[in-house]
Design goal:
The structure is a single chain. This protein has one domain (16-259): Alpha-Beta Barrel (TIM Barrel). The protein has helices at residues 28-40, 72-75, 85-97, 117-123, 158-164, 188-193, 198-203, 211-216, 224-238, 245-259, and strands at 17-22, 46-49, 60-63, 105-106, 128-129, 143-144, 150-151, 156-157, 182-186. α1 links the parallel β1 and β2 (46-49). The strands form 2 sheets. It has a 5-stranded parallel sheet with strand order 3-2-1-9-8. It is of the alpha/beta class and 260 residues long.
Length: 260
């Protein structure tokens, strides 16, 4: 299956909104807080898991492997520096897969990509990738890559907003009326802090797992948390179509089979 084979699936509204969370090794209390925001509005999200013990009932789990050489998973591989790229990738994916063995999707930490990953993903039952970031682009839709991997591009990421100030954390500046699917990517500590700029977020990394200090450092004005809450309310109040990435993957695959 390649891009030319894409058939728009029945049941997938062209303006569908998907919420995703990169778990990022956060404290349990921080993750629970972020999950509760989605639960308050009855909206299911896709949580890309970085470690064991991540429990998000009612939501989808995907994988968030860290391919950086300073990461714990890489350093846990014996003689890692002597291994081929393929061996390193296999180890990191196998380890992360153990945290959420039912996962059908992946978004790599730092949006790392190598075409060698696709056949390895496939061997572990991964069907879709969400590592391509295409900020605020019109007419976004899933597309096929080789090895039967479906790419579902990301429309918005909170970290990009911290760095660029693209929206001033205002829903009106998200371009929700633009045609195309819109996958939103949020990070729990940024949400918990209501971070409003990169400097503020980086400064808090010194107490990354101290929930009391993180709560005390929460920004009072516009920030990632206020944007997420307003966006959830906007989507809920207007009845905009939402689904998890896994649900979207299923619809696209079903349409591809019916057209084969």
């Amino acid at each position: 299956m390649i891009a030319a084979d894409f058939a728009w699936p029945e049941g997938l509204a062209p303006d569908t909104v998907c919420f995703t969370v990169d778990v990022e090794w956060v404290a349990d209390a921080v993750l629970a807080d972020v999950r509760s925001l989605f639960d308050q509005f009855g909206i299911a999200a896709t949580f890309f898991v970085t470690h064991a013990g991540v429990t998000v009932p009612g939501h989808e789990r995907g994988l968030h492997p860290n391919f950086r050489r300073n990461g714990d998973t890489y350093r846990a591989l014996a003689r890692a520096g002597e291994r081929s790229d393929a061996e390193v990738y296999e180890h990191i994916i196998a380890t992360t897969h153990g945290f959420a063995p039912e996962a059908k999707g992946v978004r790599s930490h730092s949006l790392f990509y190598d075409s060698m990953l696709l056949p390895i993903y496939r061997r572990f039952g991964i069907e879709y990738d969400c590592s391509y970031q295409m900020p605020f682009l019109d007419h976004l839709r899933p597309f096929w890559k080789h090895d039967g991997i479906l790419e579902i591009p990301t429309y918005y990421a909170d970290h990009l907003d911290l760095v660029t100030g693209a929206t001033n954390f205002e829903v009106a500046r998200l371009g929700l009326d633009r045609p195309g699917i819109k996958v939103f990517d949020f990070h729990p500590n940024m949400v918990y802090l209501n971070a409003c700029d990169e400097h503020e977020y980086v400064a808090a990394k010194g107490f990354y797992h101290d929930t009391e200090r993180l709560r005390a450092a929460r920004h009072d004005g516009r920030g990632v948390r206020s944007l997420l809450r307003d966006l959830l309310a906007h989507v809920s109040d207007r009845g905009l179509p939402t689904m998890t990435l896994g649900e979207m993957n299923t619809l696209v695959r079903r349409a591809a089979i019916s057209c084969a």
